[in-house]
Amino acid sequence: MDRESKLVERIGRAFRSGSRRTHDTALRLGIGDDAAVISSGGKDDWVLSCDAFLEGVHFLAKTHPADSVGYKSLVRATSDLAAMGATPRYFLLTLAIPASRTGVWLDEFLNGMVRAARSLEIVLAGGDTTKSSVISISITVVGEIARGHAVTRSGARPGNIIYVSGTLGRAQLGLELLLHRKIKVRGHRGGRARHSDRVLQRLLQPHLYPKIQVALGIWLAKRRMASAMMDISDGLSTDLGRLCAASGVGARIFPDLVPRVTVPAKFSNLTGGLKLDALKMALHGGEDYELLFTVSPRNVKHLRAAPGFSQLKAIGEVTRGKSVMLMDKDGTKQHLEPRGWDPFRG
Amino acid sequence: MDRESKLVERIGRAFRSGSRRTHDTALRLGIGDDAAVISSGGKDDWVLSCDAFLEGVHFLAKTHPADSVGYKSLVRATSDLAAMGATPRYFLLTLAIPASRTGVWLDEFLNGMVRAARSLEIVLAGGDTTKSSVISISITVVGEIARGHAVTRSGARPGNIIYVSGTLGRAQLGLELLLHRKIKVRGHRGGRARHSDRVLQRLLQPHLYPKIQVALGIWLAKRRMASAMMDISDGLSTDLGRLCAASGVGARIFPDLVPRVTVPAKFSNLTGGLKLDALKMALHGGEDYELLFTVSPRNVKHLRAAPGFSQLKAIGEVTRGKSVMLMDKDGTKQHLEPRGWDPFRG
């Protein structure tokens, strides 16, 4: 189990043993999944999730445009609701910034966040602001879903087919580029440089302005097509491990089937010789925010009607064991170690 | 207007002008009040608020026990719901800590928070954990209130009587003591010192383990006794200014009526000569989490049945103007400047 998951388990244990109200009937799903599910008393359940986005941990204030920080912090928080199949409605923003960031930086940050809120059709309902030595953003997103339809991480069953909703590793490619471009592109003004720059800018988008799978999540949950679901925020290897642990199952993944980013032929030139392994990025790269979900074989045929069906890829199947295995084409197999993003790894 | 309020207004403006869904009928109350109010579709509304509690801004990791940090961060977040008259139910915890804090510090922090959750009868529903260079806590509290009963800051009317729910300045007295005790008490082991230490420890409690007014808030909201309400987190002078601005009214406060902390006779000795002004602490000291509320004269007689009635004090009245005035006993008056806690003040 990764360190962050262990920490979450420890927090959960402390509160379970300390609380009088151990069986809260309105709390349909508590900590450990992508989001909490609370009965509203009406025909819909509420789905709530919170997400931290911190300078020096999740982004670098000197490298990442403020507009991207605002956009991405809201999008990634909302992805946790997409992962339950919920419709996002509102968000609360806790914003702690140094006084030096209350000028242009804040305007650009808000521009990015307003743009994300508009595209997600989600409304700012409240928040808290204070100063801080580093930029610290925490967002709580509130959404709705028909009672009992939320898709958890724990419903995967042996024989289910494992799907991802799109290409993996694109965000890491963008990140690597951003970190290297800083050195490479500065000062270039010629026509060729501008063309290269446009190519590079396009490759940066998945890292700076990620898209999330809200419509697909809603579709899958509404029709009960997915037995388990989560979003891939920390990397397939880490997140699939979490889904399997929550479901008490194992998995068999075929690396050839994993849809991976194409590293452009000129990439190495453009970045001063940086070489990247597309499969490694697809298996372990974080922040793609694609959905990872499992489907019973009898439901597979119905997926044709799903939003973005052409992007959905079956990458393997759920097994009875507890281990997550990578099946190479030559028949050899190896453990898929969780090597995605883990903030507490040494 | 204080700087933090200006910042909140700026954020609100950015989202109002940028959003297509300007009139969300389910969002009964958006940003700018203590908490957001959202219709659940059922007979109750949901009330949500979030609150940041940061190392180096709101507490000092070397001075404040981890147990107090856990306890207080949840209590102060929940106070925003008390300020609406809501019943707190759930909370989400965003916890960002250095790896060095994941041992004993985290255990003690969780102990304190579990104790607060138990006393508030509130359940951990979810959260997010990550690493950070400094301890950064953000808590979202979710509560319920009968539809339309939430008490906002904006309902105060000229002629209403202004109340506070208890003694002000106690938290600041505790803080001053804590900051000075560090120097003074260290190394004392004698019998007399132990007695002094017990006295000091008692005085520290309101700062380290504040109590909040959930029962009173619920009582006032249920009977529609308060025309406006908020909790005093940043100091009476700052928070009363906010309530008056939200209501479009002024106020007249009689300093003799403001219930203030008693500075013990030995205090100056115990702290190596520190001298404190009880009225200044009552007017400008933050973190008391008492309720500040306004009552129509015809409802005043009903307050006798309120929980903690003997502690309720009328301190002045709402006026037609826009200014908040302090009326001295000799008949002179002066503006009550907002001199409470403002994170963005230079």
What do you see in this structure?
Two copies of one chain form a homodimer. Chain A folds into two domains: 20-146, PurM-like, N-terminal domain (60s Ribosomal Protein L30, Chain: A); 161-335, Alpha-Beta Complex (Phosphoribosyl-aminoimidazole Synthetase, Chain A, domain 2). Helices cover 33% and strands 23% of the residues of chain A. Chain A has nine helices and 13 strands. Chain A has helices spanning 3-18, 66-82, 104-120, 170-184, 191-208, 214-222, 236-247, 267-270, 278-284; strands at 27-29, 36-39, 44-54, 87-97, 123-131, 136-146, 161-164, 228-231, 250-253, 291-295, 313-319, 324-327, 333-335. Chain A has a seven-stranded mixed β-sheet with strand order 8-10-7-11-9-12-13, with helices on both faces. In chain A, strands 1-2-3-6-4-5 form a six-stranded mixed β-sheet.
Give the strand order of the largest sheet of chain A, numbering strands 1, 2, ... along the chain. 8-10-7-11-9-12-13
| Helicity range of chain A | 25-40%
How many domains in all of chain A?
2
User: What's the average pLDDT of chain A?
Assistant: 89
Series of H and E elements of chain A:
HEEEHEHEEEHHHEHEHHEEEE
Features:
homodimer, 346 residues, alpha+beta, 60s Ribosomal Protein L30, Chain: A, Phosphoribosyl-aminoimidazole Synthetase, Chain A, domain 2, six-stranded mixed sheet, globular
Summary, kept brief:
The structure is a homodimer of 346-residue chains. Chain A has 346 residues and is an alpha+beta fold.
